Every structure is written in C-alpha cells, then in structure tokens.
TrEMBL record:
Single GO biological process annotation from the record: immune response
Ig-like domain sequence ranges: 30-127, 143-203, 228-326
Region (Disordered): 425-476
Organism of this sequence: Champsocephalus esox (pike icefish)
Record's keyword annotation contains Secreted: no
UniProtKB keywords: Cell membrane, Disulfide bond, Glycoprotein, Immunoglobulin domain, Membrane, Receptor, Signal, Transmembrane, Transmembrane helix
Keyword Phosphoprotein tagged: no
Signal sequence, renumbered to the chain: 1-21
Pfam families: C2-set_3 (PF22705), V-set (PF07686)
Name of protein: Ig-like domain-containing protein
Family matches, as InterPro entries: BTN3A2-like_Ig-C (IPR053896), Ig-like_dom (IPR007110), Ig-like_dom_sf (IPR036179), Ig-like_fold (IPR013783), Ig_sub (IPR003599), Ig_sub2 (IPR003598), Ig_V-set (IPR013106), T-cell_Activation_Regulation (IPR051713)
Compositionally biased region (Acidic residues): 427-444
Topology in membrane: Single-pass type I membrane protein
C-alpha cells in the first residue's frame, strides 16, 4: 500500500516537472463577515487522485491527499476551522470552508492543486468585516455620546443636529479602540452647545465600505405639565415609518428605567405594563405616530421622564420628555354652585321653618345639621394643611417635592435589535471540538461538510492524532 502511494507521489512529481503547466488566474476577491463561515473558492481539472494544499502566505491552512484531510502541518490558528467539500473533490472542487472567520484571517490565500495532468495555483484575497450591529446613544447635561462595538474595519462617525448647526459648533471627540480580537470599539462624544431642548442630535456610523449606515438620534422634548386626572398625550413622531420598526416607551422616575410599553410592527407583538393607564393608537403608530396616551395621570405614579425609542433596521431614534403631573386646580363647577344655591335656599327655608313653627322642638336638630355641612366642605378637597397627609383618600391632593427624583438623562439604550439585518451565527468558541468524522461517515453524508447540527456531522475537521508520515512533495 505504502509502496503504491510512494509510486503515485513520485509519478506526480515527475509529471509536475515534466508538464510545468501552471495555470495563472487573477486573484479571486472574497469578503466575509465576522464571525460567519467563509468560502474560499478553488477548482481544478479532476484527473485521478489529487493533492490539495491551502496556504495563507507561507502558513499551512489545510491539506488533502491520499483521499483524506491531513492535519499534521496545519497551523494552530486554523485548527478545527477548515474543511473541504470532500464529496465534491472528485468533481474538481477544492474550495475551502473557513469557519467562524476572524480579523486575523484576512489576507491572500493560495490554493495549490496537483494531479497527474499538472499542478495549479489559485489565489484568493480574503477581506473580512464585522458589521455594525447597534448604536448606543446616551445623553447627559453637557454631552451626547454614541458608541458602537465590535466593528471592522473602523467606521466613520459624523454628527448633525436639527435644526442644523454649523459643523464647527459640533465639537466632537471620537475614541477608537481595538479589542483582543482586533475589532474596533468606537465612542464619539459631542459637547452640547446652547439649548438642550428642542434640538435633535444625530450621530451616524458609516461602515468603511459605505455599505452600512447606522443612525441614532436623541431629542429632549419640551416638558409637559398636566393636571392629574386629565388625559395626556406624550408626542413621539417617528422619523421614518416606511420600514419595520419597534417602538418602546420607557418610564423613569426615582427608580431604574422601566419598559412600560412596546410594540413591534413586524410581529405585531405588543406589551403593555400599564394596561388601562396608558395606550398607543396602533393605527396612528403604523403611520409613524407613536404618541403615548396617559388616560388618568396620577401625580405619584406618572410624573417622571418618558422615553420613546423607535428602532428600525439600522436606526434608533430616542425622544425624551419630562412629564410633571400636578395637583388639580380646584374648580367650582356649575353643579356644585347649584348645589350650594339649593342648599342655601333650603337652609333659609329651614331657618324660616324653625323660627316660625318648630323653633322650640328643633333646636337640637339644627346643631346637628351645621356639623354635617362643615364635614362636606372638607370632603371637597380643601385640605388646608394637607401637604404631607398620607391619608388614602386625600393622598391625591398632596403636593410634594418629587421633582428631584426625575433623573432621566442617563438612561442607556442597549441594543437588543431583533430587527438587525445580520445575525451572527454563534458565539465565539475557541476551544470548540468538533466530532471527528470518519471517512465512512463522510461518504454516507452526501452534503458533506456543510451539514452542521445535531444529526449531521460537520466534517470540518479537528486535529488528528495520527497522520501519514509520508508527505507528498509539492513544488510551489
Ligand atoms: C480582485 O481585486 C484585485 C485588486 O483589488 C483586482 O486586480 C482583481 O482583478 C480582482 N479580481 C477579480 C476576479 O475581480
Ligand atoms: C464547491 O462545493 C460547494 C458546496 O457544494 C459549493 O458551495 C461551491 O460553490 C463549490 N465550488 C466550486 C468552485 O465549485
Ligand atoms: C468631529 O470630529 C472630527 C474629527 O475629530 C471632524 O473631522 C468632524 O468634522 C467633527 N464634526 C462632525 C460634525 O462630525
Ligand atoms: C435658549 O432658551 C432660552 C429660553 O428657553 C432662550 O431665551 C434662548 O434664546 C435660547 N438660546 C438659544 C441659543 O436657542
Ligand atoms: C420647541 O418646539 C416646540 C414645537 O416645535 C415649540 O412650540 C417651542 O416653542 C420650542 N421651544 C423652544 C425653547 O425653542
Ligand atoms: C417587514 O417585515 C415583514 C416580515 O418579515 C416583511 O415581509 C416585509 O417585507 C417587511 N417590510 C419592510 C418594509 O421591510
Ligand atoms: C390605605 O389603605 C390600605 C388598604 O386599602 C390600608 O391598609 C392602609 O392602612 C390605608 N392607609 C391609611 C393611612 O389609611
Ligand atoms: C411640577 O410643577 C409644579 C407646579 O408647576 C412645580 O412646583 C414642580 O416643581 C414641578 N416639578 C418638576 C419636577 O418640574
Ligand atoms: C442623578 O444622576 C446623577 C448623575 O449620574 C447621580 O449622581 C444622581 O445620584 C442621580 N440622582 C438620582 C435621584 O437618581
């Protein structure tokens, strides 16, 4: 057996030297998305057995000879991440599947194939990119910050306002750092000049290849003051309702931000923590108006900062509004005027009655009536010294210093973007060990290496303990 192999190899070398038929082709250009799987194309004219070697510069990436994968010389960097389409090799397919592509995989690869009809070198330039998956926007009293993580290559960040400001006025500082994987984290901070209110601040993250633009915006809307009990609409007009989006209302008072309402136009899934207290008009929402209606606002429960977040495919727009629910002003309405008129008239009649007819008998009853009237007076809301009375019935009339607790400027909106176009397949797992596939298994599995999951065996290979001692020689 070994003799036969040796013979074949010598024959291959001989033929190689004899033919010198190297085929030169233009480099193929491939761009792969981190951390997806990546196909490096290569094909050859199939004639009998083949020797395949993939290199990145001088680094051995993957080898195949004696009709099987050979891992003896594979560089550790590629360990467990490469495979060929073994069942397609007899048809001349030497393409390499590189799994969970990384920044460091970027470069020029050589696919060397050798058959008895000659050998061939093909080159593939691999570009990699990690797409922008979210933009996080934060606002403080003095600054507005946009950040995005795990991007490659480094994106460009720009700022704008509405109404527009001069570019010079937008004093920004952008910090770009790389993590251990070589991915960029970008954080850009803009100093707020002049009035905070009524300006919409926009930041854009533009991918290096310009194929992606993410936009985030923040607007601190003018505060709303409303009397308790009166329905109130907090405006949130979406900038772009043409695509699928989700809308989230968040409420912050003294505590952590709470998501009170959420609606997704794509799934039509909705969530309302304040059922019966707050609502969205879903028809208006589909037209881009996500204003929140507070049905019967309450001083204690509904005063605070309301944040409307509109998340589209590559956008996130935030509108923040401070809402101050105040004590209801005391209105003496017609009915109570009438009631007091009637009661006055009744009192007069009663008084006349008592003095003319029943004075002696009713002296005791009159005293009782007076006491009852004064009780009614109190019940109408004149709690003169009631500022801190926490009686259940009068609590709604208490004016308290709740304002200091409204501290909504620091909310973070993390990206949990169900709508984002690209979903990375798996988390990084450097030590992943794939089940070792035997050749028999591979043959039973016509789809070969592409099958991944519980049932199929990825024939993307693990390092093998044993490998052939005899290395086919190749010329390059
Ligand atoms: C790949 O890109 C290089 C330069 O960027 C170019 O010269 C070459 O023609 C491209 N190859 C193909 C197949 O387009
Ligand atoms: C090789 O086979 C794979 C899997 O079927 C396919 O995706 C790829 O396009 C093929 N490549 C060539 C060069 O034929
Ligand atoms: C932000 O800063 C960069 C460089 O730091 C500058 O080129 C740019 O003009 C600044 N302004 C805006 C609006 O991006
Ligand atoms: C800022 O707002 C105040 C009142 O809210 C106004 O008087 C002033 O003109 C505003 N300044 C700018 C630069 O818009
Ligand atoms: C903010 O905008 C609203 C509506 O666009 C306007 O009524 C209000 O006067 C503006 N406030 C300031 C301070 O510019
Ligand atoms: C919204 O999502 C649905 C469901 O995925 C899709 O069919 C539709 O084309 C999307 N619409 C837009 C405007 O992207
Ligand atoms: C308020 O009402 C609750 C139950 O309704 C009761 O347990 C509590 O004692 C009341 N508080 C006052 C101050 O009356
Ligand atoms: C709410 O409005 C009342 C009355 O206008 C005022 O006294 C109070 O300070 C306001 N609270 C906040 C948080 O602005
Ligand atoms: C408001 O924000 C500031 C700045 O982060 C923080 O120091 C302070 O504790 C916050 N106050 C409340 C009541 O949350």
């Amino acid at each position: 057996m070994a003799e036969a192999h040796g013979l074949i190899i010598m024959l291959l070398i001989f033929l190689e030297k004899l033919s010198h038929s190297k085929v030169l082709l233009a480099d193929a250009n491939v761009t792969c998305i981190i951390p997806d799987d990546c196909l490096l194309p290569c094909s050859f004219r199939p004639v009998g057995t083949v020797v395949i070697h993939w290199y990145k510069q001088q680094t051995p990436v993957h080898s195949y000879y004696y009709n099987k994968d050979q891992f003896g010389h594979q560089n550790k960097h590629f360990s467990g991440r490469t495979c060929l389409f073994n069942s397609h090799i007899p048809q001349g397919n030497a393409s390499l599947l590189l799994r969970r592509v990384k920044v460091q995989d970027k470069g020029r690869y050589k696919c060397y194939t050798s058959t008895r009809k000659g050998n061939q070198e093909m080159f593939v330039n691999l570009e990699v990119k990690a797409v922008i998956q979210s933009v996080i926007m934060e606002m403080t009293e003095e600054t507005v910050t946009c950040s995005s993580y795990n991007i490659y290559p480094v994106p460009q960040v720009t700022w704008a306002t509405d109404p527009p400001s001069a570019q010079e006025a937008l004093e920004n500082s952008t910090i770009k750092t790389t993590d251990h994987k070589g991915l960029f984290n970008v954080e850009s901070t803009l100093r707020i000049l002049g009035n905070l209110s009524n300006y919409t601040y926009y930041c854009s993250f533009i991918a290096a290849d310009k194929t992606q633009v993410w936009i985030a915006s923040w607007k601190n809307q003018e505060g709303i003051i409303q009397e308790e009990g009166l329905a109130l609409s907090i405006p949130c007009i979406a900038l772009d309702s043409s695509q699928n989006f989700s809308l989230t209302w968040t409420f912050t008072s003294s505590t952590e931000p709470t998501v009170i309402l959420r609606y997704d136009t794509k799934t039509r899934h909705s969530f309302n923590l304040w059922e019966g207290q707050a609502e969205l008009d879903q028809d208006l929402l589909l037209l881009g108006d996500g204003s929140l209606l507070l049905l019967k606002p309450d001083i204690e429960e509904h005063s605070g900062t309301y944040t409307c977040t509109h998340s589209g495919l590559q956008s996130r727009h935030i509108i923040q509004t401070k809402v101050n629910i105040t004590v209801a002003s005391i209105i003496v309405d017609d009915r109570s005027v009438q009631r007091s008129w009637w009661s006055t008239a009744a009192s007069v009649a009663f008084f006349l009655f008592t003095i003319t007819l029943a004075l002696p008998q009713c002296a005791r009853q009159k005293a009782l009536k007076t006491r009852r009237a004064s009780q009614r007076y109190n019940g109408a809301g004149f709690v003169e010294d009631g500022l801190h009375k926490h009686l259940n019935t009068t609590a709604r009339y208490i004016i308290g210093p709740h304002g200091d607790e409204c501290n909504g400027t620091q909310i973070k909106f993390e990206a949990q973007d169900e709508l984002a176009g690209c979903t990375p397949n798996t988390a990084e797992d450097e030590t992943e060990a794939l089940p070792e596939a035997t050749e028999e298994e591979q043959e039973e599995n016509p789809v070969g290496p592409l099958v991944e999951g519980n049932d199929g065996q990825p024939s993307c290979s693990v390092e093998r303990e044993e490998f052939e001692n005899i290395e086919p020689v190749h010329t390059s």
